Amino acid sequence: MRRFAALIDSLVYTRSRNAKLAAISTYLRETPDPDRGWALAALTDSLDFPAVKSATIRNLAGTRIDPELFRLSRHHVGDTAETVALVWPEAEGREQSDPSIDEVVQALSAASRATAPDIVASLLDSLDSNSRYALLKLAVGGMRVGVSARLAKTAFAQAFDVALDDVEELWHALDPPYEALFQWAEQGGDRPDLSATPFFRPFMLSHPFEGDSLDLGQYAVEWKWDGIRVQAVHLGGETRLYSRGGDDISASFPDIVEAFDRDGVIDGELLVRGTDQGGEAASFNALQKRLGRKTVSKKMRQEFPAFVRVYDLLMDGDDDLRPSPWHERRQRLERFVPKLNADHFDLSAVVEVDDFAALEMMRAGARDAAIEGVMLKRRESPYLAGRVTGHWYKWKRDPLNADCVMMYAQRGNGRRASFYSDYTFGCWTEAGELLPVGKAYSGFTDEELKWLDRFVRQNTLNRFGPVREVKKSLVLEVAFDSIHESGRHKSGLAMRFPRINRIRKDKPAEEADRIATLQTMIS
Amino acid sequence: MAKAKHWIEPHPQGIYVRPADVWIDPSVPKENAVVTHGHADHARGGHRDVWATPETLAIMGLRYGTEAGTPTAYGEGFERGGVRFSLHSAGHVLGSAQVLMEYQGERVVVTGDYKRRPDPTCAPFELVPCDIFITEATFGLPVFQHPPIAGEIAKIFARLDAEPDSSILIGAYALGKAQRVIAELRRAGWDKPIYLHGAQVRMCELYEELGVSLGELRLVMDTPKDEMRGQIIIAPPSALTDKWSRRLPNPVTAMASGWMRVRGRARQRGVEIPLVISDHADWDELTETIRELAPKETWITHGSEDGLLRWCELHQIKARALAMVGREEGDDG
User: Fold this and answer.
1) Which of A258, A296, B144, B304 could form a disulfide bond with B139, CB atoms 3.0-4.6 angstroms apart?
2) CATH 3.60.15.10 assigned to B8-143+280-321
């Protein structure tokens, strides 16, 4: 447990992705089975002990420490598990032990509601403060150490020098503590056969299109929808919905999961139906209301009904179509989708255009709320994991631009910790007031960043904690993919993917764009 | 207010000893002031007469220019308006003192800030029996338990072993914490030069003058970047994310403070190596001290007074919070 606790702590305190990867891969290489598998599951929130809840440990704390002192401490610390770990009294002269994670997991799995408090208490009694923290986080979940499933998989691939795609595929098919996965990665054993299980298949990704022309005889055209890419799997009687990173997001979208009832694997764009647009796809803003929720109320489901606009068919029944060319998969897809519940699934249309010039026109004119641009897919391409050149291209519509005035700046993270690199900018109202319209932290060169940092330091008006308010004198040309109405900001606007295009040292702040101008860009 | 007319009155700007017309640690200029130690939230410039230890007067001299004052060593004191004042070691920083006041048979102790753990840079805490114990409570919650310092110092060495090309940048308050960290590094066998931010230099020099040896110290400003690889640098906490840190080779940020006990605090500040090193009493020290002294009353000046008050209530110890202002938590934790 101590080694695991040390890993957790090093992950808590480091912000560098590479350092996190290194810490996890070292741990995985140096720790025996099954502990490393349990650790991996704990880091990715894949463990569940139904008998141990946050309330269990809160009540438990009340048996060892005055509830009022606990409440005050909890208030200060802000996290129940950490508070319990810190205040749990250590009996003098008691030997602290270092149980394996497996022993802990076995003990917690065996717990019932009734026995859980005693089991957790005796474990806490035997551990040091850091191990207590690790134990409680493992028991109740919610590690929050900045490790996504994707990062954990990457660390695993690094640790054993295996392909990330393989790890992604196998990972989701296996249950903790993943001994078969470790055996395969470490000793090069046979890949476990998983064909009929609802695991995640890595997505095929695209490159930005940067050419002047393309032979549309070889490439098919589809709209690029502005939602989130998902994979829905229904195999072996189970259904799962995965995000692009391979995270299981089934719980956030029960409507989709319930409706997907045919054996197969589809790749599509998750969108929310916009009521004001005749049932068409709404902007990304609407979808955001549904993202990241652990449970979804009936009201949410009704107000923001989710559906998948299907791009591709990876498995039809247990028939793996991935090696087949796109046009064959497309034919099968066109037969597959009509069998699904039309409220929740529709087909992403293939766009018919005569020639490339017509396509350029069409792309430029596309300002539908949910269209991000077009996709160009080679008709002969198999479905390949990852971003392989020469097969799929994304051709986003040209970004919109606005001249905005820098209002606030905030320090960045990691390498940028000493630079003011996150900027909030605004545009003018008719009354001559500046209201924030967005925030950007990319698009500039290192040289420009140095210049911007100096500007912020020399023009600070006020400090609000980590935020500096600056003199409203610098015009930034901001590029963004689209702009939407939003109740979250005072300006009533929200930009999608804003980035700093140019620093307009030449332009007086009074001549920056007005909110009214931005409103005309709403798609 | 149990005793509204007590001869000692808590005010937002300090503790007033009425019969003597003396203030303890006043936050605004007063005629007569006893200053417990040199931290800015206790020692202010501009008083007419000051009583403090010679070390505290020297520190105030450094910070506020020449300061008129009566040097008062530990165990010594003065009498005024029938009140007998004496200073006793508080173990917080060099020169820090508790104030014992005796008046009409009643003994009152004001701790200022204190700790009970050994500190190579200052005299140890003295337990002074009293009727009314006026204590700080910076870390007055049971979550705050400072681990043995050797283990915290070892974290620095472990990181240097793992990343020999990096430098370790330790944020430490300029008065007390910086010197204690340096002295503990020396005690643990680190005999290489330690590099300082400019703001740390004068106080370190003063400590040396007052007999606390800190080994070889160099200024970051005067050192080429590559020379600091694998070395330890000490800077005020405010400089950790400042432009200044760009002159260091791959700095790994550490911070020496009792607040580092809470993970969120360390993360908030972007600290990679939290060093739970404090010059304040932790929860066990605060409660143990009250238990040992068994005063008739405990008054709590500043910090997490709710937590310590609750503990007193549970242990049937008469206690009250004085709600002093101007002593909010700072980087000297």
Assistant:
1) B144
2) yes
